[in-house]
Design a protein that fits this description.
3-stranded antiparallel sheet, alpha+beta, Dodecin subunit-like, 22% helix, 67 residues
Length: 67
Amino acid sequence: MSVARVTEISATSAVSFEDALKSGIDRANKTLRNVKGAWVKEQQVEVKDGKISGYRVNMLVTFVLDD
């Protein structure tokens, strides 16, 4: 039997939503073991001088707990 936990994280990128998502998952893997998936909860853009200056993704990351 497996037991999983879900934690919410936020990641940003100046390039794209996909890049923010990748950097968030990469960072989660440095701290959490057994990351199994993520659900994108929110996407937001930052605007500066009328142009998009950043992309933010809030996600729920699922990881399986060690026995």
